[in-house]
UniProtKB/TrEMBL annotation:
Keywords: Cell membrane, Membrane, Sugar transport, Transmembrane, Transmembrane helix, Transport. This is Carbohydrate ABC transporter membrane protein 2, CUT1 family. Residues 94-286 form the ABC transmembrane type-1 domain. Belongs to the binding-protein-dependent transport system permease family. MalFG subfamily. InterPro entries: BP-dep_ABC_trans_perm, MetI-like, MetI-like_sf. It comes from Parageobacillus thermantarcticus. GO terms for cellular component: plasma membrane. It is found in: Cell membrane.
Length: 301
């Protein structure tokens, strides 16, 4: 027989239960934020040191500024002398860095989007093998190809030119770009394209007006990664650019630390901070698109 519990007993039992402490509910959050704070604290301290050192005339114990000065930022209005030589203008290096990064982004997105669409939609001989070798091509480190790239650029007359390094960097980046964009194209239903074709649009018009707007998050993410990759490029520019007219900010920084005995850490900190500012601003205004990169996960071949 079923046993019925009197309402008075149920109310009494509920009142006698001990409520869960709010601190126990928040404990996992405290642990998570504590671990996150501890792991990120060294990075935050390094950025704080970089900022203080760029404005400090002297640092006591290596991290306490004694006095502040703008002398470390003199590279903004005059050419800096370092190690007995006069460095090129920082604005020349900045212009070359922007030119290299923006052109790389345009070429990489243009070629990568077309290649990704072809891999996703068009059946052609060797398609499966090409997709399997795409990531293998990207896996080759650029340092392993330096000698071959040097001979090719020298033969074509593109050594010591930004355009030559730009072609090499684009070729190395396109396989991964095409693979990422292919994942976004895979998520676009075939019915959308067929509907446009039935309405009388050409294949090109369907691609431009219907398909591309649907993968805007993918194009934005690839553009951001391409720009950051070009802005932070050092090895290829250092190896194949020798004239000061084609110097970039990464090579400019290398000149400041070329001799360990003559490093001016105040100047180095200021130039490093100047080098970081465009990237920080770029990330602030594009972080929403970066967060949407997961929208185009790669499907199976």
């Amino acid at each position: 027989m079923e046993q019925w519990v009197r309402p008075e007993a149920a109310v009494t039992a509920s009142l006698t239960r001990r409520p869960v402490s709010k601190w126990k509910k928040r404990l996992p959050f405290f642990i998570a934020y504590g671990v996150l704070g501890i792991t990120t604290m060294p990075i935050i301290l390094m950025y704080i040191w970089l900022l203080l050192s760029s404005f400090a005339k002297q640092m006591k114990y290596g991290f306490i500024p004694v006095s502040f000065t703008l002398e470390n930022w003199k590279f903004l209005w005059t050419n800096v002398e370092h190690g007995g030589t006069t460095l090129p203008s920082i604005w020349t290096a900045t212009w070359n860095s922007f030119l290299f990064s923006i052109t790389l982004t345009m070429l990489e997105v243009l070629i990568g989007v077309m290649a990704g669409y072809a891999l996703s939609r068009i059946e052609f001989p060797g398609r499966q093998m090409l997709m399997k070798t795409t990531l293998i091509l990207h896996a080759f480190p650029s340092v392993a190809l330096l000698i071959a790239v040097y001979y090719i650029l020298n033969f074509l007359g593109l050594f010591d030119t930004l355009f030559g390094v730009l072609l090499v960097k684009t070729a190395l980046q396109i396989p991964m770009t095409a693979w990422i964009v292919k994942g976004f194209f895979d998520n676009v239903p075939w019915d959308v394209e067929w509907a446009g074709l039935i309405d009388g649009c050409s294949r090109l018009k369907v691609w431009l007006t219907i398909v591309l707007p649907m993968i805007k998050p993918g194009i934005a993410a690839v553009s951001i990664f391409s720009f950051l990759s070009g802005w932070s490029e050092f090895l290829l520019l250092y190896m194949f650019i020798v004239s000061d007219d084609n110097i970039t900010l990464a090579s400019y920084l290398q000149k400041l630390i070329s001799d360990p005995n003559l490093v001016d850490y105040g100047l180095l900190s200021a130039v490093s901070l100047f080098y970081m500012l465009p990237v920080i601003l770029f990330f602030i205004f594009t972080q929403k698109s970066l967060m949407e990169v997961s929208a185009g996960g790669g499907k199976g071949v």
